[in-house]
Amino acid sequence: MSASTTSTNTIANNSSKSTGYTAENAALRTQGLIKSFGGIRATDDLDLTVKQGSLHALIGPNGAGKTTLISQLCGLMSPDSGQVFLYDQDITAMPPAKRVQRGLARTFQITSVFPEFNAQDNVAFAAQAVAGHSYRFWRPVAKNKTFQQQAADALARVGLSSRAAVTAASLSHGERRQLEIAMVLAAQPKVLLLDEPMAGMGGEESALMVELLQSLKTEVTMLLVEHDMDAVFALADELSVLVYGRLIATGIPSDVRSNAEVQRAYLGAAPA
Ligand SMILES: Nc1ncnc2c1ncn2[C@@H]1O[C@H](COP(=O)(O)OP(=O)(O)OP(=O)(O)O)[C@@H](O)[C@H]1O
Ligand SMILES: [Mg+2]
To answer: Which of 37, 51, 76, 183 has the maximum number of C-beta atoms within 10 A of its C-beta?
Structure first.
């Protein structure tokens, strides 16, 4: 027990509970976040700081509470206690749509991909939705130059321009994931939450996604939840390890990787 506390403190540099808010360059931050489901503490007094301009990876075994955390960050789920800050603003009580308008977006929460519409129109709908309009006004969207231009730009950004006219239903799994990123980019996010973007992808598709996320690093701060360790170590500027709702380590990937407790709790047990 004491050994684990010591090793955590060696690496963790974001436990600001006693000292207050000191990370002046934090894009996204939680303080004392707690979320329980019955007897399970899925988020257990969590202090996490995602620095402005970084790609921060979050890893941990199945059921560690990664998705629960992402859900509280994007506002889909309310914490039992604690706070979420976007830049210096307390957004704990802010509804998801408002968070998106403030620049905090999440991929793969999008259930509103219209399979029968083409990639371009799907992104245009997303651009329109962020602008505060309802999806039901889809007719004008097809003709709206601003939204169509934003859509074309976002598709180009993710490398899907050549598939703009293809229906979402006809895209491959990897292309649909690219489309989802394009849809979220239409919101022009400052901070992007990604929950397992490589899930279900083959090696080639994963490599493309790594390339895409790498190219986004200069413009968007990202929190990436991912089981694909190759992707994590290729992309992450900072790495946090979550086990049973608690952060056992945070730091630069090479330091976290060599941490004995992390090895024991997660990395050592991860499939090769
Ligand atoms: N809506 C819910 N109701 C009850 N329990 C939940 C709910 N969501 C998550 N849990 C529980 O909370 C814990 C954390 O789950 P969560 O899905 O956040 O883990 P995870 O780290 O995302 O796992 P995975 O790597 O498998 O995606 C688990 O024990 C899970 O069963
Ligand atoms: Mg999950």
So the answer is: 183
Count other Cβ atoms within 10 Å, centred on residue 162.
10
| Interval 199-234: pLDDT, tens | 888 888 899 999 999 999 989 999 999 999 999 999
The pair phi, psi for residue 195, each rounded to 5°, is: -105, 100
Vertex 39: Cα angle to 67 and 244 (nearest 5): 45
Surrounding residues of ion ligand 2, Cβ less than 5 A: 66-67
What angle do the packed helices 119-130 and 173-185 form, to 10 degrees? 30
Most informative mutation of 37, 41, 73 for ligand 1 (most atoms within 8 A of CB): 37
Tokens representing 21? 């808010």
For residues 99 and 74, the answer to whether their CB atoms sit within 8 Å is yes
Ligand with minimal distance to 195 CA: 2
pLDDT in tens, 142-160: 778 889 999 999 999 999 9
Kindly list the distances between the CA atom of residue 125 and the CA atoms of 117, 128, 151, 158, 184, in Å, as whole numbers in the listed order: 10, 5, 9, 17, 11
- Give the integer Cα–Cα distance in Å for 20 and 209: 37
Output the CA 226–ligand 2 centroid distance in Å. Answer: 9
Both structure tokens of 160: 């899907």
What's the pTM value of the predicted model, to 2 decimals? Answer: 0.86
Q: Are strands 221-225 and 191-195 parallel, antiparallel or unpaired?
A: parallel
For ligand 1, residues with CB inside 6 Å are 37, 40, 42, 60, 62-68
Atom of ligand 1 nearest to the CA of 245: 14
CA-nearest of 165, 231, 181, 164 to 202 is 231
